[in-house]
Write a structure and sequence with these properties.
There is one protein chain. The protein is an alpha+beta fold and about 240 residues long. The chain folds into 2 domains: about 100 residues, no CATH class; about 100 residues, no CATH class. About 30% of the residues lie in helices and about 25% in strands. The chain is built from 6 helices and 10 strands, in the order ααβββββαβββββααα. The protein has a 4-stranded antiparallel sheet, with no helix packed on it. A 4-stranded mixed sheet has the order 2-8-7-5. It has a two-stranded parallel ribbon with strand order 6-9. The chain starts with 12 loop residues before the first helix and ends in a 20-residue tail after the last helix.
Length: about 240
């Protein structure tokens, strides 16, 4: 069997856009500047929508933050969408120790009576503002030199048509992106979509988009076992 022997299928945003327009009946010869501007904007809105469907594991990365004694709150990069895990790293001699931090909700953090308590940090509060912040508790003391490490999911890079850029998605999400973009463009150009797909075009496009997303997202997971067991050591009736 003769095969290509290559693994280079990585369509540019432009190719995704042309495929999405074809799905709603707008052929390449009919596409103008206005179409492309609309498609670029809708592509970025689609990535915004996907940012709310966490976790997107291909956008996960490890970041570090130097900790200052007596300072509890640190400003994070604005592209940070979610924190998967945070931990404190200390080094004594040649030994580095990592200790995970427990996540606090906004209510739980603000319910702490003395937020100025100092010590070895055990918890964190992720404040999801436009520019996100992370607050440690207890406030780091000066006993150790602390380094905050956190695994986060960030937003995808902007979808840009000019320059022939790719979309920052993995191979397995190409179909989901085209179907999602076609769904959005069908709302922008309903007459074309209706002529191509019939009166039920909106439902057809939405169903395709959802099905493709679910297929891709269903594989964007870590294949590891989960063990859940109750702690009943101190249970009495």
């Amino acid at each position: 069997m003769a095969t290509s022997g290559t693994y280079g299928f990585s369509p540019t945003l432009g190719r995704h856009v042309l495929a999405a327009f074809a799905r709603i009946g707008i052929r390449r010869t009919a596409i103008g500047v206005e179409h492309m501007k609309d498609a670029e904007f809708e592509s970025n809105l689609l990535l915004c929508d996907w940012a709310n469907k966490q976790p997107n594991l291909w956008l996960s990365s490890l970041k570090t933050e130097a900790i200052t004694a007596g300072t509890a709150t640190y400003t994070l990069d604005p592209e940070v969408v979610a924190i998967q895990i945070a931990y404190i790293s200390t080094t004594v001699g040649t030994t580095t120790t990592d200790r995970p931090l427990g996540a606090l909700s906004t209510v739980e953090y603000h319910a702490i009576p003395n937020k100025a308590t100092t010590g070895y940090p055990t918890s964190f509060w992720f404040d999801r503002q436009v520019t996100p912040q992370i607050t440690l508790w207890p406030t780091p003391d000066s006993v150790y030199t602390y380094t905050l490490k956190y695994r986060c999911v960030r937003q995808a890079e902007d979808a840009v048509l000019a320059g022939g850029y790719d979309v920052e998605i993995p191979y397995r999400f190409n179909t989901a992106f085209v179907d999602g973009l076609a769904d959005r463009l069908g709302a922008v150009y309903p007459e074309a979509a209706k002529a191509a797909l019939g009166a039920g075009f909106a439902q057809t496009l939405a169903e395709r988009a959802v099905r493709s997303w679910q297929t891709a997202a269903g594989q964007d997971t870590e294949d590891v076992p989960i063990y859940i067991s109750p702690s009943l050591g101190g249970y009495y009736r």
